[in-house]
Amino acid sequence: MSHSTLDSGKTAAGSTNAANPEPGGPATAAPAPRKRRRSFLPYGLIAPAALLELLIHIGPMLLGFWIAFISLTQLNLTNWLNAPFVGLQNFINGLNPESTIGQAFFSTVGRTLGYTILVVGFSWVLGMAGAVFLSSNFKGRAILRTFFLVPYALPAYVGTIAWAFMFNQRDGAVNQILVDTLHLFGDERPFWLLGENSFGAMVIVNVWQLWPFAFLMLMAALQNVPNDVYEAAAIDGATLWQQFRTITLPMVRPANGVLLMVMSLWTFNQFNIPFVLFGATSPKEATLISPLIYQNSFGSWNFGLGGAMSVLLLIALFIASVFYIRMVLPKGADND
C-alpha cells in the first residue's frame, strides 16, 4: 500500500472522527459558517421575463386603472394625457341601476353568470363521463381518446368559424339536419345567430371547445386512483354509482377544484367566441360582460366607462377566486 493511500486514509479517518466525536472525547470546535457570496446571475436571468411581464401585464393594467378615473372619449383621445379627471363618476354611471348603462351592466353580469354555470356544468359532466368511460381497458381506447381531444387541439378561431358556418340560417348544416332531415321546425328555418337562439348557440360552441380540457384533466386525475379500491368496493357489493360517488369523486376532488376554477374564469371572461360568431356587436340576448366592455370602449368611444367596468370585473373575479381557493384548498394546506 502506498504512502499516499495511507495518508488519505488517515486524513479520512481524522475527518470522520472530527465530524463524529466519540462520547466523552474532547469537544471539537464547529467549523465557521462559510460566508455566502451574493450572485447577481439569478437576477440577470429573470430580468428579461420580469421586464416583459411589466410591459405586457402590469403596465396595461395600471393604465386601465388610470383610464377608469378620467373622462376619455373620442374628443380627447389624441390628447389622453390631459383628459379631465372625474374620480368615481365612471363607476357611478356603470353601477347606477336607474340608468340605461347600469341596467345593461347588471343584466349582462347576470347573463354572464348563467352562461358560465351552463358552460362549466356541461363541460364538466361531459369531461367526467369521457374520463370514466376511457379509464377502463378496451380495444380502440387510444383512438377514442385522440378523437375526444380534437376540439381542444383545433385553434379556437378555426373551430368557431366552422360553427358559424354550420349555424348559418339558409344553408348551414344545423338547419339541414334539424329542418330538412328531421323536420323538427316544419318549413321554418330558424336563425341561430340572431335573437334568443344566439345564447344557446354560443353555449354549444363554448362547451364543444372546453369539455376536452376537462376530460384531459380528469383523465390524468383518475390515473392516480388505484384499482384495488374499486375491486374491494365491488367485492363488498357497491354499485357503479356508489363507487363513483364514494371513491371517484373524493379521490379527484383536488383536481376538480382547480379545474372548475380555471374553467369558470375562462368562461366568465369569454370574448373570442361571441366576437367571432356575432361580430363586434353581439345580439342583446347573447351579450356577455367582456363584449359589453368592448362595445362601450370601442363602439361608444367611452374608454373611461369601459375602464371602470374592467376594474369592477377584475375586483369581482379576484374576490371570487380568493373565496373559491379558500374553500377548495385542503385544511391545513396553507399552513405548510
List keywords for this structure.
about 325 residues, mainly alpha, about 65% helix
Major beta sheet, specifics?
A: none
- The helix-strand sequence is HHHHHHHHHHHHHHH
Class per helix and strand makeup:
mainly alpha
Mean pLDDT: 84
**Low-confidence stretches at least 5 residues in length (pLDDT < 50)?**
1-25
Choose one word for the global shape: flat
How many helices? The count is: 15
DSSP helix fraction: 55-70%
- Strand content is under 5%
In total, the number of strands is: 0
Q: Please give the alpha-carbon distance between the first and last residues.
A: 53 Å
Radius of gyration: 30 Å
What does this structure look like?
There is one protein chain. Helix 14 runs antiparallel to helix 15. The chain has helices at about 5-20, 40-65, 90-95, 100-135, 140-150, 150-155, 155-165, 175-180, 195-220, 225-235, 240-250, 255-270, 270-280, 290-300, 305-330. The chain has about 325 residues and is mostly helical.
Condensed summary:
It contains 15 helices and no strands.
What is the topological layout?
Blueprint: H1 3-19, H2 41-67, H3 89-95, H4 100-133, H5 141-148, H6 150-153, H7 156-166, H8 173-181, H9 197-222, H10 227-235, H11 240-251, H12 253-268, H13 272-278, H14 289-299, H15 303-328
Helix pairs in contact: 2-15, 3-15, 4-9, 4-12, 7-13, 9-12, 12-15, 14-15
